[in-house]
Specification:
Structural class: alpha+beta
Radius of gyration: 23 Å
Number of helices: 11
CATH architecture of the domain at 72-240: 2-Layer Sandwich
Distance between the termini: 32 Å
Strand order of the largest sheet: 1-6-5-4
Strand content: 5-15%
CATH topology of the domain at 72-240: Chloramphenicol Acetyltransferase
Oligomer: single chain
Order of helices and strands: HHHHEHEEEHEEHHHHH
């Protein structure tokens, strides 16, 4: 059973993409939930195979003379930055506490190697005269890691203040770089590394790839050798060109038309009885609740409930959240946005961008 083995919404999406690529059919996610075993899934595929031909061509490296473009999601990130250049809403920080001896020069070399390896990390995006984004690749700086020493007795509050300041500091979209790497040395045996990227460069999947490669590269440089990772086959720019091919455009147009119809009568505003008036201009400075965890007993009960009803924990928690919004707003319909990977072909699964 797919979900009993740890499957979830994101892995289900990846599985559907691989089925589309291998069998040339569009398997609805609902079929995966209703037929989560290999045998049941095979029967589902037998029933729909040949009905429609929906396999997508694989992205390929673009020609050297083909100009770089932003992907559609990168264009959205660029546009939002033009509206609110000082906002940190689309910053992606990742903080790591490192214990034990640390080779700072090897860490610098590993980070520099990552920036050289993945061209998207060297991206800056100024605007053309007519107001369109123009992606430009910058050379990697001689050093990419900033090291700062903190007193060993520095409080957790002080360190948290440093982390939050660096995570929120605006990026210069037109000049770059759109990343920041900073290391705080508390003692020779304790360090905190902060990686901050603008969302235009990476998503959650990209961040996982970068962290995995950073660990491998750091180990190699501590041993005075080069990382043995395979060369990068596809870049963000290759995927951006692929998105604009006729087959992909046709698919995107169908999906956009569907969602325009579905959301035609959607509520424009959620009427919550807030304790403060809604600001006239969006600031992104609302409060947040951090570190909330379910108890082991409640987590186990949630998983049992999900197995019984054939849903993922995300689906159950999303429904719970929507019910909470209904309770406080009184609205029968609410719109809740959630992030998606947007990786519709298996070849894009490990692309950093």
């Amino acid at each position: 059973d797919f979900f009993s083995l740890g499957g979830h919404s994101l892995s289900a999406t990846r599985l559907a993409a691989r089925i589309r690529s291998s069998f040339g059919v569009e398997l609805p996610l609902a079929s995966l939930f209703s037929s989560p075993s290999v045998a049941a899934l095979a029967r589902e595929l037998e029933g729909i195979q040949g009905a429609t031909e929906t396999s997508l061509p694989a992205p390929t490296p673009r020609r050297e003379d083909e100009r770089a473009l932003l992907s559609y999601s990168q264009e959205r990130m660029w546009f939002l930055h033009q509206l609110q250049p000082d906002s940190s809403a689309y910053h992606m920080p990742e903080a790591l506490e490192l214990t034990g001896p640390l080779d700072i020069e090897a860490l610098e070399a590993a980070l520099h190697w990552l920036v050289s390896r993945h061209t998207v990390l060297r991206l800056a995006v100024p605007a053309s005269r007519d107001g369109h984004p123009v992606p430009v690749l910058q050379p990697a700086a001689p050093r990419v890691l900033t090291v700062e020493h903190l007193e060993p007795d520095a409080s957790a509050t002080t360190l948290t203040a440093h982390l939050r300041h660096e995570a929120a500091r605006p990026f210069a979209m037109a000049e770059g770089p759109l990343y920041r790497f900073r290391l705080w040395q508390l003692t020779p045996q304790r360090h905190v590394l902060l990686l901050v990227f603008h969302h235009l460069l990476v998503d959650g999947t990209s961040l996982s790839v970068l962290l995995r490669e950073l660990a491998e590269a750091y180990l190699a440089f501590t041993q005075d050798s080069l990382p043995a990772l395979a060369p990068v086959d596809l870049s963000w720019a290759d995927v951006a060109v692929w998105q604009r091919t006729p087959r992909l455009q046709e698919r995107e147009d169908r999906q956009r038309e569907y969602w325009v119809r579905q959301l035609a009568d959607a509520p424009r505003l959620l009427q919550l009885p807030t304790d403060k008036p809604r600001p006239s201009v969006l600031t992104g400075k609302g409060g947040s609740i951090e570190g909330q965890q379910l108890s082991p007993a409640r987590t186990q009960a949630l998983r049992a409930f999900c197995r019984e009803h054939g849903v993922t924990p995300f689906m159950a928690l999303q429904a719970t959240f929507a019910g909470l919004l209904h309770r406080y707003s009184g609205q029968e319909e609410v719109c809740v946005g959630v992030p998606v990977s947007g990786r519709t072909h298996p070849a894009t699964e490990d692309v950093v961008g």
